[in-house]
Amino acid sequence: MASEISITPCGPITGSIRPPGSKSLTNRALIIAALAQGQSTLTGALESEDTEVMIDSLRRIGVSISHDPDRHTLTVEGNGGKFIGDNTEMFIANSGTSMRFLTALATLGEGSFRLDGIARMRERPIGDLIEALQQLGANIRTEQDNACPPVLVDGQGLPGGQATIAGNISSQYLSGLLMASPYASSEVQLQVDGELVSQPYVRMTTQIMRDFGATLEENDGCRFVIPGSQTYRGREYAIEPDASAASYFWGAAAVSGGKVTVQGLSRDALQGDVGFCEALAQMGCQVDYQADHVTVTGGPLRGINIDMGQISDTVQTLAAVALFADGPTTITGVAHNRHKETDRIGDLACELRKLGATVEEFEDGMTITPGKLQPAQIETYNDHRMAMSLALVGLRQAGIVILNPGCTSKTYPRYFEDLAQLCGS
Ligand SMILES: O=C(O)C1=C[C@@H](OP(=O)(O)O)[C@@H](O)[C@H](O)C1
Ligand SMILES: C=C(OP(=O)(O)O)C(=O)O
């Protein structure tokens, strides 16, 4: 892809789109199908860097996965939780889900595994997950003394027992532990210590575990009991379109004063990020939820105060929309966004200021006061969501250039083509 892309302003956007499959569901389904007894067919799967590194890593530990790109289908031959490592290297680029879920999975195997990624992945914390796995009897550590990848696992199967897990940095630790736990030799009891961010992803995890036949008990969303020596059962599984990706198209309706329908999602979707529509409703958009699609109609936008701790992947989308509101928007509850593909508070504030906004940054969020919009070259920090969200500003303001647009390949390689098609250009 070109080293930059200029966004062409357009009028109110009217259209309908089905985004690619959910990253979170595809990577969960791959982990669970790999562990299962029997074959699984995953339809509507995401094909992007984050799922490719997951597939590549699972193949390296002996899981057979075939891909039919025409049908967006992955067929996985589950190996019943029997993995042999022999200094097996897994390269995970910058996929947080893959790093955290595969770290937990590797402790179920026999032998040695090393999990590594790009430079930014080596700055993304994983210490809390390592400590919890150690409490369950795993022989695991980080290569450096910094609680970040590379991760080294010397697997002898996971004994099980009790562990506490911190939930304030990432919910992915808990999700990884949960998905691996049915394959521990004995019962696993997990207690979340303190705050749990991104809770809807944990509900997604427990739901998909049950969908593949696992049993677990759950109390107040912070205590889990998972009987050991279980097996997932392979099955056919349909993956929802990605709700975080959908936020850009709903956002496009909001900023352009148009009407956009996203197919394949509903209020009852497994993905919490459908909740982004409620944020748009608070800002003045109309939202129509149907059983298999959700339509957002833009209108005059007002600034809001909102805790986005449960829908943090949509913070950048909301920030782009906030630039078109009649007053300030305050976003809180997302301190954990500083540990993602980039510092999604500090770096986002910097790009919003370039666009003409006044931004007051705090530890867990920011207040965005819209100003006169101005042309800008947007730095993406190799963060797909920075590119996808701030492109929306270019639908209304001339002279918006997105640098390194290829970074969307992490979750949405065809994003700019799909956006252009929706805008009718
Ligand atoms: O479990 C998941 O699939 C995810 C959880 C969230 O991460 P955190 O729990 O780190 O907020 C989210 O940002 C990420 O894109 C996907
Ligand atoms: C935070 C994200 O991804 P991950 O943590 O899976 O790398 C994201 O997709 O916005």
Automatic annotation (TrEMBL):
Pathway of action: Metabolic intermediate biosynthesis; chorismate biosynthesis; chorismate from D-erythrose 4-phosphate and phosphoenolpyruvate: step 6/7
Entries under SUPFAM superfamilies matching the protein: EPT/RTPC-like
Catalytic center residues: 313
Residues covered by region (Disordered): 1-20
Keyword presence, Cell membrane: no
Residues binding 3-phosphoshikimate: 23-24, 28, 170-172, 198, 313, 340
Protein EC: 2.5.1.19
Residue span(s) of domain Enolpyruvate transferase: 8-419
Compartment list: Cytoplasm
UniProt-annotated binding residues for phosphoenolpyruvate: 23, 96, 124, 172, 344, 385, 410
A molecular function GO annotation: 3-phosphoshikimate 1-carboxyvinyltransferase activity
Assigned protein family: Belongs to the EPSP synthase family.
Main function: Catalyzes the transfer of the enolpyruvyl moiety of phosphoenolpyruvate (PEP) to the 5-hydroxyl of shikimate-3-phosphate (S3P) to produce enolpyruvyl shikimate-3-phosphate and inorganic phosphate.
Record text on subunit structure and interactions: Monomer.
Record protein name field: 3-phosphoshikimate 1-carboxyvinyltransferase
Native source organism of the sequence: Bremerella alba
